[in-house]
Specification:
mainly alpha, Amino acid/polyamine transporter I, 18 helices, globular, binds tryptophan
Length: about 450
């Protein structure tokens, strides 16, 4: 066991940690996935349950992951093993760390491809790309999917951008990148939402997202919202654990987590309002599915005065958000390679990139040349998403709740959490009972056992 007292670099201050954790949480999940999920899952019903889930399940698990990371002072695998050893729990808990480390890389392989689409659309926007009709917009997107070389190129560029930061190390690379990018992201997003208020139909967007309609509230919508709360807060994959391991003892885990959850949710809601107000103003369909951003928005941009500048702003924002999230997907494994095997950070980072790059190339091909190769009717892209979001994430989130709630023992948890009274009791009970039960429901639903 590496001693918790061994010198280990930490974030320069609490705000730096909050900033990078927000950077991890806010990504394609909030800006690309949240609007299309809300758009196709009953709008306000989804949004309402999602918000409740963020508070009741996501936030407590966020605290639990930071707690394990900081107590274990290491990459997710070592952190789980260290805390398990300290609390005389089984070393089998280390598997949770492994599931996270490997799962994060699997997510990254397709996340990087989708982020590559964003790079592609950013470049297109800069060079004056316009679409006049819905058919034109969907043809442009289909043309991209049919072109493995173009996708592979931008996937490569995005992955290199990501690993370039990780290779320089957490403090000098990740923290510096986030310090510049996150405030920029907020600024662009606020401008974008203001623009949505001027050029779009903010009233319709507001109604769609917040005028609660009880009849849209089905078990399917509820479970989809639980799952998305997970993905959007980067939970269950060791990313938050890895970042938490660089947090010093003096920072309060609870208030830090509240900041992260609030800021992350705010970004998602702002993005939703901006996107839906534009979508509605153009008479477009909110339930367009995963293609919502890349098919519907370019059309809206093309019909709007100043649309080109707007498009460039928007795709830059999405790219920044995806970048800071992707960094947190690489860090857990790179931390393991450097801490456990003693491999130098740049080598560990670029070696990891090579493996992810190859899988990502296969993902690019799964949309075209290899689209015929499927398993359970899913191509490689869909399969990786299914495996990570529906199987690995819920299971490892469940394990993390059980580990902190039952295995660690109250004494260690109280000592690390530094939270007293009713707030502690509520959090602890949620981890012991509510979160595991809710996650099990999501899991059984995802596998179709609950219909
Ligand atoms: N939360 C990010 C998003 O919304 C994606 C992400 C980054 C993630 N790190 C993660 C998801 C770890 C699950 C686990 O885009």
């Amino acid at each position: 066991m590496s001693s918790p007292a061994s010198p280990r670099s930490t974030w320069s201050n609490r705000w730096a940690f909050i900033l990078v954790t927000i950077g991890s949480a806010v990504g394609l999940g909030n800006i690309w996935k949240f609007p299309y999920m809300a758009g196709s899952q009953g709008g306000s019903a989804f949004v309402a349950v999602y918000l409740i889930c963020v508070v009741l399940i996501g936030l407590p698990l966020l605290m639990a992951e930071i707690l394990i990371g900081r107590r274990g002072k290491g990459n997710p695998v070592s952190a789980m093993l260290n805390v398990a050893e300290e609390t005389r729990s089984s070393p089998w808990w280390g598997i949770v760390g492994w599931v996270g480390v490997v799962g994060a890389l699997l997510i990254l392989s397709f996340y990087s491809v989708v982020a590559g689409w964003i790079v592609d659309y950013l470049i297109k926007s800069i060079s004056g790309f316009r679409v006049e009709t819905a058919e034109g917009a969907s043809a442009a997107f289909k043309a991209l999917l049919a072109n493995p070389l173009e996708m592979a190129l931008w996937h490569t560029v995005f992955l290199a951008m990501t690993v370039g930061v990780v290779a320089r190390g957490v403090i000098s690379g990740i923290e510096k990148a986030n310090k510049v990018m996150m405030p920029g992201l907020f600024l662009i997003l606020v401008l974008l939402t203001l623009w949505g208020g001027i050029a779009g139909d903010m009233g319709a967007a507001w109604d769609f997202m917040f005028a609660f309609k009880a009849h849209d509230l089905t078990p399917g919508v509820m479970l989809a919202a639980v799952g998305h709360a997970f993905f959007s807060l980067s939970l269950g994959m060791g990313a938050i654990m890895a970042y938490g391991s660089y947090l010093d003892r003096d920072s309060s885990i609870a208030s830090t987590s509240i900041w992260v959850a609030m800021a992350g949710t705010l970004v998602g809601l702002l993005a939703g309002l901006a996107i839906f107000s534009l979508t509605f103003a153009q008479g477009l369909e909110p339930a367009a599915g995963p293609g919502l951003i890349l098919q519907t928005l370019p059309l809206a941009f093309s019909h709007m005065p100043g649309g080109q500048g707007f498009a460039i702003f928007f795709f830059t924002l999405v790219l920044f958000a995806a970048w800071t999230s992707a960094i947190s997907l690489v860090e857990p494994f790179v931390a393991w390679l450097t801490e456990r095997l003693g491999i130098r950070r740049p080598l560990a980072a670029w070696g990891t990139a090579a493996a992810v790059w190859i899988l990502g190339i296969a993902v690019c091909l799964s949309f075209n040349i290899w689209s015929g190769y499927t398993l359970f009717g899913l191509n490689l892209f869909e399969l990786l998403d299914f495996l990570t979001s529906r199987i690995m994430m819920p299971l490892s989130g469940l394990a993390i709740a059980l580990f902190v709630g039952w295995a660690m023992g109250r004494h260690s948890v109280v000592d690390e959490m530094q939270l007293q009274g009713k707030a502690f009791e509520a959090w602890y009970r949620i981890l012991r009972y509510l979160a595991p039960l809710a996650i099990l429901l999501v899991f059984f639903h995802a596998l179709g056992w609950l219909g």
